[in-house]
Amino acid sequence: MSRCSIGEMGGQVAARPRELTPDRSARHLFGAKMRAHRERANMSLGQLKDVVMVSTSHLSRIETADAMPPPDLPRRLDAAFGTDGIFQELYRLARREIHPDQFRRRMELEAQARLIEEYAGQIVPGLVQTEDYARALFEKFDPKATLNEIEELVTARMSRQALLSADPPPDVSLILDEAVLRRSFGGPAVMRAQLARLVDLTLTPTTVVQVLPFEHGGHALVGGTLTLMTLAKGAQVAYEESISTGTLLEDLATVSARRRAYDLLRACALSPSDTANFIRSLMEAPSDEHHS
């Protein structure tokens, strides 16, 4: 329920505003400043909505840092509050910020997504990893981790995959660079089982897997991992991931640019049936053709 004035609630007692944490990040500071200036102007969220043309619910989520401000909002807030560019400056910081809670927020959005599209350049995406592949991956990532720590990570990874059997499950589309299939983790048996799972997922009612062969050459997404998520009401977000950091992107122009890059790769990738044949050929090849 959004935090509304008594008038907006039709005479009901207003919900107590959630405590803000402006020192947590630039995004949180943006929301806190927005609430402070709104209250200083004696404006409800509903009244501010009429000025900046953003819904009351969205404004409420921006104040609590649960949503990214749309690109035009900072300029409108500066005009509404006479703040001489303060909100535009905060927005420039917030949109580039890597938040400590971004992976958690990514998981929350992933659980809500009706369509998940991912490009992977080096490793099999977590949503479709086998347990043994995930274990081998975590062991390589942190050789000093204890057995219990590794098993906790594997359990978390496997529990994340529960959304694939949700009712209804999201549609999932994966583009895998050829390197993903040739870079072995855990040895031949583990890798063969992982490849077999990918074959099973190449074309089902809810999953599509395509391989981008080496012969395609360079492209805009090389060197990283990109996930595009389409939520129930059509909103789209993107998540870029490197070795140890991730960045959640919600700005419409940025997400659109990433989607364009993804769509170009999909057009150049092998079809699902050709992908299945390609993966099977790797499974049948001598194990020394894979590199650990």
UniProtKB/TrEMBL annotation:
The residues covered by the HTH cro/C1-type domain are 33-88
What the entry lists under CDD domains is as follows: HTH_XRE (cd00093)
One MF term in GO for this entry?
DNA binding
Q: What is this protein called?
A: Helix-turn-helix domain-containing protein
Q: Which organism is it from?
A: Streptomyces melanosporofaciens
Q: What is the lineage of its organism?
A: Bacteria, Bacillati, Actinomycetota, Actinomycetes, Kitasatosporales
